[in-house]
Amino acid sequence: MTSPRRVAITGVGVLGWPGLGRDAFWQGLLQAPADGPRVMDHFDPLPYFDNPKEARRTDRFGQMALAAAAEALEQSGDLNANPDRIGVWVGTGVGGLRTLEQQVEVRIERGERRVSPFLVPMMMANAASAAISMRYGYAGPCENTVTACAAGTQSITNAAMLIRSNRCDAVLTGGSEASNSATGVAAFKNMTAVSSCNISRPFDLERDGFIQAEGAAVLVLEELEMAQSRNATILGEVLGGASTADAHHITAPAPGGAGAIRCMKLALADAGLMPDQIVHINAHGTSTPLNDAAEAEAIHKVFGTPGPLVTSTKGVTGHALGAAGALEAAAVVLAMMHGQIPPTYGYETPDPDMAPIRIVADKATSWTPGPSLSNSFGFGGHNGTVAIGPPPQS
């Protein structure tokens, strides 16, 4: 039986609080976050479009995905592959919510005939993938995953599968989210999922909810030998991944983190790894009471004591929903590039009732990069885990 093809990571593009671009994003992960909402008001989409009209006809989540893709491709360089074998797979939690809300207001205030004919192509969840495909002429599979907060992670795993199975030679993949509209913010607030004090404190005793955020991240994945043949700089490797369902509750995690346990174990098996080979986990770590407790228990049950180093970058970035997993996969790659694991900002007081895990707190820690996991768990009971390794030595 032919072995699956290996999947290299050759480009990373990021727009996530607090910075535009992967360098600013990385520096932000090493600093205590400023107070305030995690929105990208300083993002100007116009440089990524031929004209302002084209930009106006693209929802914000699509605009950010195009910007992240441009940065990732600039780093990766010319893919030198058949466009029919280059795919795009960008996930989102809700798609063009801002556009939908704006056009509902237009209908109410100005009548049905004033609703934009671009509403549907702007709000549809596959708009970001479609925009990237059309911009660069990539004619391979162009798809997206919409699994709430697991969408970014599951998109990366799905994209890697296209390469491993020999359907594609390269895939642009990740997630994008811009759901901080008035209605979107109110909905999460009324669910009591959002922190009442606007502080993200993953795994902390005083955690009381997440900070809703915008963001986008795109990775360039390509078949390893193709990347090596064109002398691309290989940043990391997607080793495997997995997806499971809790089949339990629309918002609450399964008791004891059962779905997360199965997901991490399946990801390890897919990557051909044993638990003791995992050095680092970028946790889902939303700062909600139930989620953090369930994830900590799942990590402890799979990896034991002391277990791998664990961080939640949502202490800085907030929770970018369908883009969160992509931002966090990018954070893992950047941690490997810089030889540091960023801390879990907001974590100060251990929860005595939480299963013991090795949380990186206070400041970044140096490490020798090794196999790592990035976890994402979404409303609806969707679980996603992707295993990422450092660049291969040979």
Q: Would you mind describing this structure in some detail?
A:
The relative contact order is 0.19. Strands 1, 2, 3, 4, 5, 6, 7, 8, 9, 11, 13 and 14 form a 12-stranded mixed sheet that branches. The chain has a two-stranded antiparallel ribbon with strand order 10-12. Helix 3 crosses helix 6 and helix 7 packs across helix 13. The protein is built from 13 helices and 14 strands. The two termini are 23 Å apart. It is 35% helix and 19% strand. Strand 13 and strand 14 form a beta hairpin. The longest helix has 17 residues. With 394 residues, the protein is of the alpha/beta class.
Task: For this entry, give a set of tags.
19% strand, 394 residues, 13 helices, 14 strands, alpha/beta, twelve-stranded mixed sheet, globular, two-stranded antiparallel ribbon
- Distance between the ends: 23 Å
- Give me the number of helical elements: 13
Specify the structural class: alpha/beta
What string gives the helices and strands in order? Answer: EEHHHEHHHEHEHEHEHEHEHHEEEEE
What's the number of extended β-strand segments? 14
Largest sheet: 12 strands, mixed
- Sheet-strand content, in percent, reads 15-25%
* Nearest-integer average pLDDT: 95
Low-confidence stretches: none
